[in-house]
Amino acid sequence: MINKLGVIGAGYVGLVSAACFADLGFKVCVVDYDTQKIDALKNAIIPIHEPQLAELVKKSINNNHLTFSESYNDIEDCCAVIMTVGTPSNDDGSANLDYLYSATRELMNVAKDGCVIILKSTVPIGTAKNIMKLVPDTKHFHIVNNPEFLREGNAIYDFQNPDRIVIGMSSDEPKAIISYLYSHFIKQDVPILFTDNTTAETIKYASNSYLAMRIAFINEITTLCETSGANISDTAEGMGMDARIGKHYLHPGPGFGGSCFPKDTKALSYFATSNELDLPIIQNIMHSNLNRIEDLIEKLHSTFSSNQCKNIAVLGLTFKANTDDMRDSPAIPIVKALLKNGYSLKFYDPSHTTQIKEYLDITLQNSIDEALDGADAAVILTEWSEFQLISPQKFEHSLNKKVIYDMRNILNSEVILKQGLKYFALGFSPSTL
Ligand code: UDX
Ligand code: UDX
Fold this sequence. Notes:
The chain has 433 residues and is an alpha/beta fold. It has 18 helices and 13 strands. It has helices at 12-23, 35-42, 53-62, 98-110, 127-132, 155-160, 175-181, 183-187, 197-228, 232-240, 261-274, 280-306, 331-340, 356-359, 368-372, 385-388, 392-398, 413-418, and strands at 5-8, 28-31, 66-69, 80-83, 116-119, 142-145, 165-168, 192-195, 311-315, 344-348, 377-380, 403-406, 422-425. Strands 3-2-1-4-5-6 form a six-stranded parallel sheet, with helices on both faces. The protein has a five-stranded parallel sheet with strand order 10-9-11-12-13. Strands 7-8 form a two-stranded parallel sheet. Helix 9 (197-228) packs across helix 11 (261-274) and helix 9 runs parallel beside helix 12. The protein is globular and about 70 Å long. The protein binds uridine-5'-diphosphate-xylopyranose (UDX) (2 copies). The site of one uridine-5'-diphosphate-xylopyranose has 19 residues, from helix 9.
């Protein structure tokens, strides 16, 4: 039924999707215009940090289920092609669809009649309908939305264990191919929702914006706890015990980042504004998130200056743990503000991300010890488990002013305080620690 599956875009989502479909037994060919990336992938060199991805790619290359190319001609015989090219934000918050349209046009020039073009990239509401207008009169393609719900750092698990599969289409014609593509999951009774294109696009944006809003909400509750003296951990736990709320996405942090939440909340807000809709919750999620980052910058500066800290060890730069992705990481504005305020900084990130230079003119230390060496204080920006494993004795011995600012609440405050350190965390005013 599916002779060969094409995937356009060898990024975080495209590469995971291709490797996982290949692992299910499909013959998959990944096309990307980045020839360096394609050359590396042909040699099973993975350009991103995603747990278990390298092993999966190597396995699928070795059993001839996964190939890479920079030429669309290598997917001209595919009866289904998945689009996972980037849809980054424009300055006004709208999604930049240039890559998507150019890749789709190039595909339509070579794709065989009846090809199912599957939009996995997050695309603004109404995009599928606009792409249908690109289909040449001489050809018949099916445009299907199939939004991804993969968390970076957990992407393979999330692909292999989806809560649901969402399919948007304008007729039942592509249903057989899509059902075949997802037959493994359908057999496992994974819910699959078949709906129209616009609704599938809306489900993706609404889901991501809702999750982003949850994070912005718990971060505002965290600020409230810092004033009221309430315990944010117990507050989040007590909220999460309500089945209607649930315990996930209630962890306080320095604000949400990544290539999706900021981009998608901005795009949904842009859709509301450009349609002259007054949707204050949706249109203020980003405002709340940026407020959070500014508030924490002030708190950091106040804590460091009142404790005479000048040399700071910055632990974690990626937008979350278990990824090397720096896109929209809250660490970027926080580090820029600390540098602007004249602090001397040393950095460590377990991913050793090579994306640093795209955002900050800094260098990474090779180890936690090197970053802590000579520091007055440490700030934890990302919840890498390596940071939880740093002993209180290590912190106490390394930090001249014995100050730790834990922006992920991952350390045990009792143990840290017992070691004689000054521990600052989210949701806790110093007096309650
Ligand atoms: C992308 C979209 O940005 C996101 O909205 C969607 O949810 C999933 O796909 P991501 O995988 O993180 O997310 O994108 P990125 O890591 O930027 O990879 C995109 C890839 O597409 C890059 O390798 C780029 O070289 C490639 N690309 C882009 C093409 O091959 N052709 C193009 O025309 C544009
Ligand atoms: C998200 C969605 O979860 C995923 O379904 C979608 O396909 C892509 O966008 P991702 O951005 O990779 O995935 O990471 P996620 O784990 O959702 O975290 C997003 C941001 O929220 C990170 O900055 C993270 O640190 C933050 N976060 C998450 C919190 O601050 N608190 C939480 O409780 C959860």
